[in-house]
Amino acid sequence: MPLPWGGILPIQMYALFILTGIVIATIMTSRRLTKRGAEPGIVLDVVLWAVPLGIIGARLYHVLTHPDDYFAGQELWRIIAIWEGGNAIYGSLIGGAVGVIIACRLTGLRFWSFADALAPGLLVAQAIGRLGNWFNAELYGWPTDLPWGLEIPSDNPAWPQGLAEGTLFHPTFLYEIVWNLVGVAVLLGLERFFRLRWGMMFGAYLIWYGAGRAVFETIRVDPSEMFLGIRSNVWASFAAIIIGLVIILVQRRRHPGIEPSVYRPGREWRPADAEVDSDDTESDSDSLDEGVEGENAPGEPAATSSSRSASA
User: Fold this and answer.
1) Is 237 in contact with 176 (CB distance < 8 Å)?
2) What family, per the record (predicted)?
3) Which stretches of the chain are DSSP H helices?
4) Closest by CA position to 47, among listed 27, 65, 66, 62
């Protein structure tokens, strides 16, 4: 749904919510990383890689899981028409993970440390992004007579045939919003009591999100590719749960101790590093002055310089 003041290039509400979610997730991740010893602002170096590749991954996943919309006699250029909608969270996770791996190689951060710091913010970003589905009147579920049922225009492309106008539907995106926000509290609680590190926090995120998405996806009525009678995103959710469990089990076995640093060995950043240059300059100047004074001071014993060396 474009805003009326968008002019030649309409501003999509869905895009605004996505961008808002990215900003908030970036702030949350930065604070969490900084508390664990990372250089302030280094998260931006990762975002510059993760966000573009996440968007590309989201689009490719959507296109590949909806081939009839793009390859069945359609104009192929519409594959890149991202402004018309069509992005997949699981695709963004895959593409974003590739971006994080590249950025962590460049910055020296541990991939799993960054993933752990990102997990709560990722759920918040996904919850905010789902608000855009309300403006687009999309991603709704079966008909319902519940008080919070969603009213959808009957000319909506996903409107089920044979239903009377005014039928209400399950707001599956709202269910996912609530699930994700509850998940933030659950993950933070697990992290506090079990000291989840080495990627185990991210594994818990995959399990939580995958479990909820698997349920909400089954009641959606919008078209989707089916495999063995199950929607493709449900299969992806099962995969997320399995991957999350594997990450936790493997990492718990490989790394039973406390994570020493969010950086790889030899790439650590220390707060004192920012002051080394200025401190060294002042120290060199002071040492030079002291040395000159020592040479000129009458009666000063030669042992003074050696005692300084010993104390250093």
Assistant:
1) no
2) Belongs to the Lgt family.
3) 13-35, 43-65, 68-71, 89-107, 111-136, 172-194, 200-218, 232-254, 273-296, 303-311
4) 27
Strand partners, 141: 220
Binding residues: 130
Say if strands 150-151 and 230-231 run parallel, antiparallel, or are unpaired: unpaired
Q: Mean pLDDT, to the nearest integer, of 231-244?
A: 96
Per-residue pLDDT at 113: 96
In the chain, domain spans: 12-254
pTM, full prediction: 0.81
Which residue, chain included where needed, has tokens 């991957």?
Answer: 243
Whole-number average pLDDT of the chain: 83
End-to-end CA distance of the chain: 68
Distances in whole angstroms, Cα of residue 17 to Cα of each of 23, 128, 253, 310: 10, 6, 39, 62
**How far is Cα 86 from Cα 158, in angstroms, rounded to an integer?**
14
Rounded CA gap, 57 and 60, in Å?
A: 5
Token digits of residue 261 = 């640093």
Q: What is the pLDDT of residue 84?
A: 67
Q: Helix or strand or coil: residue 152?
A: coil
* Structural tokens at position 154: 């009957």
DSSP-assigned beta bridge partners for residue 226: 231
Which among 232, 198, 224 has a CA at the least distance from the CA of 90? 232
Q: What angle do CA 198, 22, 241 make, to 5 degrees?
A: 45
